[in-house]
Amino acid sequence: MSQNAPATPLAPALSGERADLLEMLARHRGFLRFTANGLTDEQAGLRTTASELCIGGLIKHVTSVERNWVAFIVDGPSAMGDFDNMTEEDFARRADEFRMLPGETLAAVLENYAEVARRTDELVVSLPDLDASHPLPSAPWFAPGKEWSARRALLHVIAETSQHAGHADIIRESLDGAKTMG
Fold it and tell me: pTM of the entire structure?
């Protein structure tokens, strides 16, 4: 499968908003995966800018973000946990999302990302109502009492993926001059 191919083909009869969501998810996932083309495990873990970020870590983070928001769509805020009750270990695990840890491989990171993408795409196709909403979990970046629909959560996943694909592109260009576009 090409690095840019959608994780799940669009259903033949699927059109409209759901097809648009799947197309945008696939497009921005493809940009992110493309930044990893031809990299070794070591290169995927290199920091090439002033940032702490690396390409493998960004893919791990986006995988986690997508997994968590899909869990939110299905199970509500309890699926994401409560930021106010996070322990030092929770914060350390979150920080580990942004780097390649010893023993991790780029192939495994990409495989995990593809599996999460496949599950998300299946949910987009099968979800009865994109307007179904849940209260957001407690976190300093969410207004108290705010709710997000499944649609809003999916748009957030697209935005996160797009933003981090741009970060990965800068890291890759700093690594070896390769660029996603241009």
Answer: 0.89
Integer Cα distance of 128 and 12 in angstroms: 18
Which has the closest alpha carbon to 167: 41, 48, 42, 40?
A: 48
**What residues have CB less than 8 Å from 52, skipping those under 6 apart?**
98, 99
Distance between alpha carbon 125 and the CA centroid of its chain, in Å? 18
Which tokens hold the place of 168? 């990965």
Q: How far apart are CA 88 and CA 90, in angstroms?
A: 5
> Using N-to-C axis directions, what is the helix angle for 55-75 and 16-34, rounded to 10°?
160
pLDDT tens per residue across span 144-169: 889 999 999 999 999 999 999 999 99
Cα of first residue to Cα of last residue in the chain, in angstroms, is 24
Who has greater pLDDT, 174 or 3? Answer: 174
Question: Which residues have a Cβ under 8 Å from the Cβ of 86 and sit 6 or more positions away?
Answer: 94
Rg, the chain, Cα only: 17
Amino acid at 37: N
Mean pLDDT computed over every residue of the chain: 91
Among 150, 153, 137, 166, CA closest to 31: 166
105 C-beta neighbours (distance < 10 Å), count? 13
